[in-house]
Amino acid sequence: MAASSESQPSEATGAGRTLLITGASSGIGAATARLAAGHGYNVALAARSLDKLQALADEIGAERALAVECDVTSWEDQQRMAAATRDRFGSIYAVYANAGFGARRGFREESPEYWERMVLTNVLGVALTIRATVDDLEAAKGHMLITGSMAGTRALPGSLYSATKAAVHSIAEALRLELDGTGVRTTLIAPGMVDTPFFDQRPGAGALHDDDIAEAVLYALSQPPHVDVNMVLVRPTAQAV
Fold first, then answer.
1. Catalytic amino acids?
2. Between helices 160-178 and 125-140, what is the axis angle to 10°?
3. Are 24 and 196 in contact (CB under 8 A)?
4. Phi and psi at residue 62, in whole multiples of 5°?
5. 97-149: pLDDT as tens digits
6. Which residues of 191-200 are buried (b: 16+ CB within 10 A; e: fewer)?
7. Is residue 19 classed as helix, strand or coil in its secondary structure?
8. Would you put residue 25 in left (φ > 0), alpha (ψ -120 to 50) or beta?
9. Strand 42-47 relative to strand 231-234: parallel, antiparallel, unpaired?
10. Does an H or E element contain 163, and which?
11. Which end of the chain has less Cβ packing within 10 Å, N or C?
């Protein structure tokens, strides 16, 4: 699986197309933005932390990057995000619905309010991103990518997060079926343990890096139009589940 700038020319994948990324302020989203920009994509960066987004946009370059403040649980924010991307870059070719967060395992852990925010972000947020951009993707015969999780393939003990990601996996397949025949491709990116700010206590050595998942995203995007990589499950070499 090769999509790095060392193996391909910088313009080979994106060629001026626009990739919109939610949850782009850090971790997998930020790594994907950097790699995609290196492959010629314009990148629209969306998250709640506008200061972090703007710093990333400045790093990538104003001619290639746009920072848009967005709470993915808000339909109004999602509509503004999509409109700002169109206004800046003219169209949206690909969307990476990546925003999400986890919770401690155990149904006695976390507050009900925390659970509600997680479920709304991880599940409703993905659905709203699809709704806000699906017409753009159909017009462009583009690509929808969604961050799932290894935890979405099998339930982990006491994990409501697993349930949210299982729902995301179902959303990805439901969207693929809805868009069959339109030319739009759909890809679920399902990471195992990744050493990112997602975790309160970083897993450290042995875990995947956010760049590893960015490479998976660019691999799916780089395929020819007749190839749709529907799911990429990426685990560390040493991970029991």
1. 161
2. 20
3. no
4. -60, -30
5. 999 988 888 888 889 899 899 999 999 999 999 999 999 999 999 999 999 99
6. bbbbbbebee
7. strand
8. alpha
9. unpaired
10. helix 160-178
11. C
Cα–Cα distance for residue pair 26/47, rounded to 1 Å: 9
User: Residue 68 pairs with which residues in a beta bridge?
Assistant: 46
- Which H or E run contains 147? strand 143-147
**Exposure of 187 in the CB half-sphere (CA atoms within 13 A):** 25
- Please state, in angstroms and rounded to a whole number, the distance separating the CA atoms of residues 32 and 34: 5
Query: Using CA atoms, how far apart are residues 155 and 163, in angstroms rounded to an integer?
Result: 7
CA distances from 37 to 49, 50, 57, 107, 202 (A): 20, 19, 10, 41, 27
CA dist 78 and 101 (Å) reads: 18
- Contact 107/160 with Cβ under 8 angstroms? yes
Inter-axis angle of helices 210-221 and 27-38, nearest 10: 50
Residue in 237, 220, 238 with CA at minimum distance from that of residue 229: 220
Query: What secondary structure does DSSP assign to 98-127, as a single string?
Result: -------SSTTSS-HHHHHHHHIIIIIHHH
CA-CA distance, 186 to 146, in Å (whole number)? 8
One-letter amino acid at 229 equals V
Tell me the per-residue pLDDT of 40-58, one tens digit each, with 9 for 90 and over.
999 999 999 999 999 999 9
For 31-86, give the DSSP string. HHHHHHHHTT-EEEEEES-HHHHHHHHHHH-TTTEEEEE--TT-HHHHHHHHHHHH
